[in-house]
Description:
DNA-binding; globular; homodimer; alpha+beta
Amino acid sequence: MKAxxxxxxxxxxxxxxxTLEIDDFYKQFEERKFKKSEYILEAGKTCKHQYFVTNGxxxxxxxxxxxxxKITQFAIEHWWLTHWSSYKxxxxxxxxxxxxxxxxxxxxxxxxxxxxxxxxPKLERVFRKITENWLIAIQKHSEFYLSLDSKNRYQQxxxxxxxxxxxxxxxMIASYLEITPEHLSAIKSKHVS
Amino acid sequence: MKAxxxxxxxxxxxxxxxTLEIDDFYKQFEERKFKKSEYILEAGKTCKHQYFVTNGxxxxxxxxxxxxxKITQFAIEHWWLTHWSSYKxxxxxxxxxxxxxxxxxxxxxxxxxxxxxxxxPKLERVFRKITENWLIAIQKHSEFYLSLDSKNRYQQxxxxxxxxxxxxxxxMIASYLEITPEHLSAIKSKHVS
DNA sequence: CGCGACGTTGATTTGCCTCAACGATTGTGG
DNA sequence: CCACAATCGTTGAGGCAAATCAACGTCGCG
Lengths: 193, 193
């Protein structure tokens, strides 16, 4: 499937948008391709875009004060992604965004996006709803973290996102779940259930 | 200050809205007053509104599987509040929303709010931005939790929100910071710094 | 005044981390 | 195509931060 069709399909979940409007909007995006391990954004730089993943797998992580990588997000095909505080407040990001597989994204800058909102008012509503859903997802995710111990975090995560278990190395899953790789290994060996 | 003026002041931070538009929008809200300890929302019920706090102090919490209250949010005057997943997906909330002081709120339902978006298109943008800022706040908050140990969480929280330290009992602060009340007490006694 | 809500203190326990060593697998250059 | 290094996962010993449990002091309110 072509990138434009993927984007169209995604946006049409939120509102009835004509092919003409999609064409118009799509022109504001830039397609970029990254090889496995390449950085889409490096810490210290400002995140100037929102990204729509058309192909591949991405992680977002920062380096904590002990020097360990902490993964805060993954994203795959048809996921929307940005580093919100860096993007909106135009401040340097403390996080890295990195392709974990060969990856293709569509990116759009804040100013282009705001322009599109003015040109195609319908989009204002679409992105309000996207943002609302994003918020729901993050709030659920926080509750998930707070309420479970490490073993249950792993069990819930692996049944909710079997794709990631397949495609992401175990130590990165561990980092995302706030567990050391050693301890995750121990969790899996006990009670294979 | 009257409730309408407070709301107007809040909304005008996001866009230039006329007094006429504010009047129109304000009619869609309902004012409700709660005594200390009363529930604005109980677990098991669906959260049908977004709330704007004009006076008082509120907490959001749920009961975990060990029977302990876990506080996930506080809100005071001029904060916007809802339980997103319950509100948008119209499913029962697992959380309680409770007034910790005598509290006054303005509430608006999802359908009234969506109607207002159609009547006053400018509001669509205002609420997109409010939602974006909400998202930024939550993402920052998650990073805050992940990167600090209990002592630093307390120190950062108490310097960032001295109001809450004054107005909220210590065991609730502890709950919000994911610390037991006993341990928070120990943190404070050592190294008064 | 008496009771319940709140905070404190100390002893014990525990979930998870740290550190170190060691297989298994992958991939890369000679 | 093999040899070797790097990457990744596993295992175990020891340690630590924070939870649990229990007891007690204090304050404010009905």
